[in-house]
């Protein structure tokens, strides 16, 4: 019993460390990637003892700067809520990570340890619920700031998130119809199968339209640039107008965490999670015949690596999109959500149902 | 719906362009890291204090007074530069030279960079080609205004 609790504790710490480290370096990746895209170099001056490492210390420099800034709350703000908002926002985004399977199980001291913090029965619903609750961080911050711009930002954020929640949910209903389980581990397990004997049974091949709707709605959920209504840096500054220092840093960090959570979800639901194509427990078995054996530890390692690579790819893709597109207007955001994504989600649902019934 | 699909196509094209830039530039960055010399670079950035771009031959930078062969300033204090200067940044005080061939020399020749607009009219106006703006010194900053008042007659 105690050992089990200890194992869960270690897993929580590791999962949190993974997420936070990735988010920390995602700030660096964002600066560098945008720079490379625009023929620039990007932040490369932060150094420790003259060691620059292409600016890899930049996140720490940023963090130290945030730490030493004055931590203030305006006198007209509602103190307790003002303090609570960043924490709420951060918490509800960080929590879904516990449901994500990082790999299959490893065997240590005669004990099978799943590389997943908690294997929830209805993990998919849990993750959706947590992402929806993320609205409260925005709403509370806008309300507690007693600032008109902040309030406008938070209301826009609430409207946007609620609209896109519908499309997100619709796109996942098709997935739930195809997959046998709501457990994320079960979903990933299922995606190890083969379609037509050669194609991995990944969500993207079963639900291509569903993935498009999911990813676009997910992009809107992250509140980053093409959909940055709540922030609107160029017009209303946004829901964290009255925040500074570490509290603002937490909001910014939440943005990057959302990118990671969306990447992890897209990977888990549509790109086979930790599955490596044609890699079984014993080794590779290729559909065109042949294959080779891989040791058990190497299989686990490959799978964890595959999961990480897929997550990195989606983080990269999201940053690419964020630095490619200009922002939508508010009415365009609403149009896109209700007039494009929701109908597409419904069409996807109908098509999935018809195909399933015809089979 | 149809309009959105057209927009979607263009959006995808845009992402393709930025992705292409990313991969092409990244290739050049990686090649550079491994010491491979390539014709073009991954970025157009010039990291200014560390590397400098060559100034063009016709650039205008901090003024200087061309010295005569004996080392004294070649200015004859004719005041043409002071007259032509649109921002009135030059101050020249003439003094009598012992040499009758020269007659006048500047006892004081000061340029006030707080006012100077780098038009180069003084260079054009000078009849003896004494004042020039070719020092290549473009880092003209100081922590006080008096730091930008620069005497040119001192070598």
Question: Quick summary of this structure?
Answer:
The complex is a heterodimer of chains A (359) and B (155). Chain A is mainly α and 359 residues long.
Which structural category do the helix and sheet elements of chain B fall into? alpha+beta
Biggest sheet overview of chain B: 3 strands, antiparallel
Examine the coordinates and then state which fold CATH places here, giving the name of the CATH topology of the largest domain in chain B. Alpha-Beta Plaits
Oligomer: heterodimer
Helix content of chain B: 25-40%
* End-to-end C-alpha gap of chain A: 46 Å
Category from helices, strands and their pairing of chain A: mainly alpha
Number of domains as seen in the coordinates of chain B:
2
Query: Judging from the principal axes of the Cα atoms, what is the shape of chain B?
Result: elongated
Flag low-confidence runs of chain B. none
Mean pLDDT of chain B: 89
The strand order across the widest sheet of chain B is 2-3-5
Average of pLDDT of chain A: 88
How many separate helices of chain A?
11
Residue fraction in strands of chain A: under 5%
Helices and strands of chain A, in order, run as HHHEEHHHEEHHHEEHH
């Amino acid at each position: 019993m105690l050992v089990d609790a200890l194992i869960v504790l270690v897993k929580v710490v590791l999962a949190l460390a993974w997420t936070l480290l990735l988010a920390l370096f995602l700030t660096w990746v964002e600066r560098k990637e945008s720079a490379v895209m625009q023929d620039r170099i990007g932040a490369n001056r932060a150094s420790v003892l003259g060691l620059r490492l292409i600016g890899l210390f930049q996140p720490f420099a940023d963090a130290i700067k945030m730490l030493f800034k004055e931590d203030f709350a305006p006198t007209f703000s509602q103190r307790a809520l003002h303090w609570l908002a960043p924490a709420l926002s951060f918490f509800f985004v960080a929590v879904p990570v516990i449901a994500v399977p990082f790999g299959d199980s490893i065997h240590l001291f005669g004990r099978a340890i799943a590389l997943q913090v908690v294997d929830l029965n209805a993990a998919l619903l849990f993750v959706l619920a947590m992402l929806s609750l993320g609205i409260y961080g925005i709403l509370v911050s806008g309300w507690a700031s007693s600032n008109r711009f902040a309030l406008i930002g938070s209301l826009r954020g609430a409207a946007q998130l609620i609209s896109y929640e519908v499309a997100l949910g619709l796109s996942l209903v098709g997935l739930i119809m195809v997959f046998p389980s709501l457990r994320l581990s079960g979903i990933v397990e299922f995606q190890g199968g083969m379609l037509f004997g050669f194609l991995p049974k990944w969500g993207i091949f079963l639900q291509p339209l569903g993935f498009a709707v999911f990813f676009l709605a997910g992009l809107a959920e992250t509140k980053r640039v093409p959909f940055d209504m709540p922030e609107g840096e160029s017009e209303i500054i946004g829901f964290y107008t009255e925040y500074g220092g570490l509290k603002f840093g937490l909001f910014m960090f939440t943005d990057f965490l959302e990118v990671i959570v969306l990447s992890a979800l897209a990977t888990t639901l549509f790109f086979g999670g930790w599955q490596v194509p044609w890699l079984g427990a014993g080794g590779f078995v290729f559909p065109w015949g042949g294959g080779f054996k891989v040791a058990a530890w190497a299989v686990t390692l490959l799978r964890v690596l595959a999961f990480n690579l897929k997550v990195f790819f989606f983080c990269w893709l999201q940053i690419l999109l964020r630095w490619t597109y200009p922002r939508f207007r508010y009415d365009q955001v609403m149009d896109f959500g209700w007039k494009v994504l929701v109908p597409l989600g419904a069409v996807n649902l109908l098509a999935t149902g018809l195909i399933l019934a015809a089979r | 719906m149809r309009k959105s699909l057209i927009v979607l196509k263009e959006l995808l094209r845009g992402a393709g362009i930025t992705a292409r830039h990313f991969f092409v530039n990244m290739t050049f960055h990686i090649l550079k890291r491994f010491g491979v010399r390539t014709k073009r670079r991954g970025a157009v950035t010039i990291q200014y204090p560390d590397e400098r771009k060559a100034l063009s031959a016709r650039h205008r930078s901090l003024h200087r007074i061309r010295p005569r062969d004996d080392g004294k300033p070649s200015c004859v204090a004719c005041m043409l530069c002071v007259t032509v200067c649109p921002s009135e940044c030059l101050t020249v005080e003439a003094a009598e030279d012992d040499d009758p061939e020269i007659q006048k020399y500047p006892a004081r020749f000061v340029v006030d960079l707080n006012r100077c607009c780098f038009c180069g009219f003084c260079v054009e106006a000078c009849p003896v080609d004494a004042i020039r703006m070719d020092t290549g010194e473009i880092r003209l900053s100081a922590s006080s205004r008096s730091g930008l008042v620069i005497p040119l007659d001192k070598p």
